[in-house]
Specification:
The complex is a heterodimer of chains A (104) and B (818).
Chain A: E1 4-9, E2 17-23, E3 26-32, E4 38-42, E5 56-58, E6 61-63, E7 70-72, E8 88-94, E9 97-101
Antiparallel strand pairs in A: 1-9, 2-3, 3-4, 4-8, 5-6, 6-7, 8-9
Chain B: E1 3-8, H1 12-25, E2 29-35, E3 41-42, H2 47-52, E4 61-63, H3 65-70, E5 74-77, E6 81-85, E7 90-93, E8 98-100, E9 103-106, E10 110-112, E11 125-126, H4 131-143, E12 146-150, H5 154-165, E13 169-174, H6 186-198, E14 201-205, E15 209-214, E16 218-223, E17 228-230, E18 233-236, E19 240-242, H7 245-249, E20 258-260, E21 271-273, E22 278-280, H8 288-302, E23 316-318, E24 326-330, E25 339-345, E26 350-357, E27 360-367, H9 373-382, H10 410-413, E28 419-421, E29 426-427, H11 428-438, H12 443-450, H13 460-471, H14 477-481, H15 492-501, H16 507-513, H17 525-536, H18 550-554, E30 557-558, E31 564-566, H19 577-589, E32 594-597, E33 603-608, H20 613-622, E34 635-640, H21 654-665, E35 674-679, E36 693-698, E37 701-706, E38 718-723, H22 726-743, H23 750-757, H24 759-766, H25 770-787, H26 791-795, H27 798-801, E39 808-809
Parallel strand pairs in B: 1-2, 1-9, 2-5, 9-21, 11-18, 12-13, 12-18, 13-14, 20-22, 34-35, 35-36
Antiparallel strand pairs in B: 3-4, 6-7, 7-8, 10-19, 15-16, 16-17, 23-24, 24-27, 25-26, 26-27, 28-29, 30-31, 31-33, 32-33, 36-37, 37-38
Helix pairs in contact in B: 1-8, 11-13, 15-17, 21-22, 22-25
Chain lengths: 104, 818
């Protein structure tokens, strides 16, 4: 499982917030919902490339800070009527440590 | 055993008296009402719109039969009283019904004056008095073609226009040379005639009727000068005569009407008379407003208070023909001792004349634009000396009261004591209060609650304007009740009210208490709730940065390329070489792509990367520069002109005032962004009159303006007030910001907020009421105590800097193209 990388502690990501992981190919936003569920999406809104990590997180969604598109954290899909999809990454939490699969 | 009150006449005057009496003391009397017409009580004034087809008869009903029953009133509709027996104290009706009274109210009204010419009793000749007359006219309109209206007064013209609308060819015959000569001067009368001619009414002026011709039915009218016109219908509208036969037959003293004293009692003190049948101090009245004033006094006496006196009425007239605006009041002709001011714009169809004596209005005629009728009428009744604004009198009330900066609708300027509805004696203050206290949003609701515009309807436009000025043009009922967002059924106002009254101090607690439908809200409701919480409980509620839009969370404006802009505060627009050097150094050090001067007299460093922000802020902080909140719903800038320090026109030190205002007011969050400006003289170079709070220096002090903005919908400020000292400017500024903070909805700028609640509402709380102003100011200062921390300094500590960095940087991975 060499694709899995430990990126830090869960508590480093604010609840209803996100942190950015910088990779060789671009940024990945790692979200922590109010429920402590963790998600990871490419940090680019499918609309105009806005940084999703800076958006307001609500339930399992994030609102893009540029034009308020709502993106599902579970699927990366924009909420209708908008259409588009942010790339999704698999992420898991073990013993309070967040692991991200950057090639998933 | 209750006393017995008998009312003869089921018309407007009689029933209004009964209504007023019920208000004062419902249980005093057993009330019996006789009405010659077989209906409940209806609004006779509205017969014109019934005739023209603009209103169904049902809408004119004032009191339905159930109303009489509910109030325990015995109604004999269609029963004509034929005799008053004062010795036995009883009245006798045509059908023999006899009812005893302890007190008797005569409200028999008037009859149309039927010219005693040959043929006046032919079928097809009617007055214009009751619904039966209207039915005859409507029948004629269906089956015949030619109508003649005798009389070019108020009633005759309304009848003529109605009949034209019903498809008849209508000629109005008038004895005098101008129409409505008792209400209009010849100039206005001629404009009116031309307007009505364009609507298809023909006029025969100076024509005296000799005979009405016809056999089975009217066929034509013959005049003294030999002219003759054909007619299938003749409407007699040559005036009314008080109907006092019944009283006279009972030996009650009558002259032109039933003579009454100041408590509306006849020579027999058990018997009262109100309305058109009564003669008071030599005057009889044929308009509705005096009848209602009489009704109030009469009811007061009947209720045994006896503290109220009727001293006569000053009347004004409006013609109820839709699209024709005519107003007249008082002595509109003037004489050798009075002066006249005339405004005439024939192209626009506007004519105004005000008659003055010793700078006091004696009378007025308005044609084409009657908006200011109520204002002139009030000035006239109150005997106001108009010398101070005589030169702008003719331009109307809208042109008074500010230095030319404000933009008021005339109703916003009307005094609360100004009478809006002359029929029902309803003042603007009463209407405004009821709109607020009952939450009224439609004209019908206002009518139902205040009776304003519910009689003749002449003030409908004015009432609508008042409604709009109080609740705002966008505050339809749906909007008011609209939920904040789909997460809840609660409106903005309801959520904030709950936060205040139930002492809610966190978003989770608020959502739980108000039963939010979603687990943690949405990007619409969370920022709103966060604002309501911290503005209501500044010392208790925690500012939730997770419920903040990125700009307010990162204290910088996000741009489309994910970069940010940095705007330091430039207090009052004044800077120094040292500050400029520090800004220039920062721009070079962080390779800022663009340095731009903003519209608010500041410097914008555009294109800064997120990771650079804390270090850049620290450098700027070191030079004494702090966050300018250019990203926030908070005080933005205070724009200034040079002012009296240097400007040769300046009257006050606008720069110092701007600096002081900015230092005083920065920090606290507001519902939306808040901009200020200070101009050093009325030339207003700082453009203070399109700011949320604008200050314009005048020689004697400062003018304070509120509610302006540029943007999509430019709105010029309203003048709040004038003050003398700089301390007062700060106090009013703090109080105004606090009202706005506490009462406007989240994301509502001051401009739409003031349009929604009305300037008077704001003035009442902070201009008229010094104590309230002081309390508001104190609450603002208290909030400032907590809010005035430079957010840049807070974020440059090592602990917070981490938030601006990636969580981790790794050199693997692939991200597909978006």
């Amino acid at each position: 499982m060499s694709d899995w990388i430990s990126i830090g502690k869960l508590e480093d990501i604010p609840r209803q917030g996100a942190r950015v992981v910088q990779t060789a190919a671009g940024e990945i936003a790692v979200f922590r919902a109010a429920s402590d569920a963790v998600f990871a999406l490419a940090n680019r809104c499918p609309h105009k490339g806005g940084p999703l990590a800076e958006g307001i997180v609500f339930d399992h969604h994030v609102a893009c800070p540029l034009h308020n598109w709502k993106i599902s954290l579970e699927s990366g899909e924009a909420v209708a009527p908008d259409k588009g999809c942010a790339r999704r990454y698999t992420v898991r939490v073990e013993d309070g440590i967040v692991h991200l699969n950057v090639n998933s | 055993m209750k006393e017995k009150l008998v009312v003869i006449g089921n018309g407007m005057a009689g029933m209004r008296t009964v209504e007023e009496l019920l208000k004062l003391g419902g249980d005093l009397y057993d009330i019996t009402v006789f009405g010659a017409e077989p209906h409940g009580n209806y609004n006779r004034i509205l017969l014109s719109p019934v005739l023209s087809g603009e209103m169904p008869f049902d809408d004119t009903l004032l009191n339905r039969p159930e109303w009489y029953a509910e109030h325990g009133i015995t109604l004999h509709a269609g029963s004509k009283v034929t005799k008053i027996d004062r010795v036995r104290r009883q009245v006798v009706a045509a059908d023999g019904l006899t009812v005893p009274y302890d007190r008797l109210l005569i409200a028999t009204g008037s009859r149309p004056f039927i010219l005693p010419v040959p043929g006046h009793d032919l079928p097809g000749v009617v007055g214009f008095r009751d619904i039966a007359d209207v039915e005859v006219m409507l029948d004629a309109a269906q089956n015949h073609r030619h109508a003649v209206v005798i009389g070019g007064g108020l009633l005759g013209l309304e009848a003529a226009v109605g009949l034209v609308k019903r498809g008849m060819v209508v000629r109005v015959v008038h004895l005098a040379d101008t129409l409505m000569e008792r209400q209009l001067d010849s100039a206005a009368g001629q404009m009116l005639q031309r307007e009505l001619e364009s609507r298809g009414v023909e006029f025969l002026m100076g024509a005296k009727t000799r005979e009405i011709i016809g056999r089975q039915r009217v066929q034509g009218v013959l005049f003294e000068d030999g002219r003759e016109v054909s007619a299938d219908l003749v409407v007699m509208a040559a005036g009314i005569r008080p109907d006092f036969e019944l009283a006279k037959a009972a030996g009650i003293h009558c002259e032109r009407g039933i003579v009454v004293n100041d408590t509306l009692q006849t020579y027999d003190p058990r018997i009262y008379a109100v309305g058109e049948c009564a003669q008071h101090r030599g005057q009889t009245y044929g308009l509705v407003a005096p009848l209602f004033e009489q009704a109030k006094v009469c009811a007061n006496h009947l209720a045994k208070f006896g503290i109220s006196r009727y001293v006569g009425s000053v009347t004004s007239t409006k013609l109820k023909v839709s699209g024709v605006d005519v107003f007249s009041a008082g002595d509109f002709l003037g004489g050798p001792e009075s002066e006249q001011i005339v405004y005439r714009d024939p192209g626009a169809g506007i004519y105004k004349k005000v008659v003055l004596k010793d700078n006091r209005i004696q009378g007025a005629v308005l044609y084409g634009n009657t908006l200011d009728g109520a204002w002139y009428f009030q000035l006239m009744r109150e005997g106001t000396d108009v010398a101070a604004f005589r030169d702008s009198l003719m331009f109307g009330q809208a042109h008074l009261g500010d230095a030319g900066h404000g933009q008021h609708s005339p109703v916003a300027l009307m005094a609360d004591s100004a009478e809006v509805c002359g029929c029902n004696g309803v003042t603007k203050g009463t209407i405004v209060n009821l709109i607020r206290s009952k939450g009224l949003f439609t004209l019908d609701e206002v009518r139902a609650h205040t009776k304003a515009s519910a009689s003749c309807g002449g003030c409908t436009g004015l009432v609508e304007q008042i409604l709009a000025s109080v609740v705002g043009s966008d505050a339809a009922p749906a909007d008011q009740q609209k939920p904040l967002c789909p997460c809840t059924e609660h409106s903005h106002d309801a959520a904030r009210e709950a936060i205040r009254t139930q002492h809610l101090t966190s978003i989770e607690q608020t959502m739980r208490t108000l039963e939010w439908r979603t687990p943690d809200g949405c990007p619409t409701c969370r920022p709103a709730l966060n604002y309501y919480l911290i503005s209501t409980w500044p010392t208790e509620a925690r500012d939730d940065d997770r419920s903040r839009f990125v700009n307010e969370r990162l204290h910088a404006n996000i741009q489309k390329d994910r970069s940010y802009t940095v705007v330091p505060r430039i207090w009052g627009g004044v800077t120094t070489p040292e500050e400029l050097r520090a800004i220039a150094d920062a721009a070079e050090k962080y390779a800022v792509p663009m340095v731009k001067i903003t519209g608010g007299q500041r410097i914008d460093l555009v294109g800064v990367q997120k990771e650079q922000l804390p270090a850049m802020w620290a450098d700027l902080n070191a030079a004494g520069l702090v966050s300018g909140h250019a990203y926030g719903k908070a005080l933005r800038t205070v724009k200034t002109c040079i002012g009296s320090q240097f400007c040769r026109f300046g009257t006050q030190d606008s720069v110092q005032m701007g600096v002081d205002l900015e230092k005083f007011s920065w920090g606290s969050w507001t519902p939306h962004k808040f901009k200020m400006a200070v101009s050093g003289c009325p030339r207003n170079c700082a453009e203070a009159t399109i700011k949320d709070f604008g200050v314009v220096a005048v020689d004697s002090g400062w003018e304070l303006h509120v509610g302006g903005n540029g943007g999509v919908k430019v709105r010029v400020t309203d003048l709040l007030c004038r003050v003398k000292t700089a301390e007062e400017v700060l106090e009013y500024c703090g109080a105004f910001m606090q009202i706005y903070r506490e009462q406007a909805r989240y994301l509502e700028r001051t401009a739409p907020w003031i349009e929604r609640v009305g300037l008077d509402y704001v003035k009442k709380q902070m201009v008229d009421d010094a104590a309230s102003r002081a309390v508001l100011y104190q609450r603002f200062v208290e909030s400032q105590r907590i809010a005035q921390n430079d957010p840049w300094a807070e974020h440059t500590t090592d602990a917070r800097r981490g938030e601006f960095e990636p969580m981790i940087k790794i050199d693997v991975g692939r991200v597909s193209a978006a």
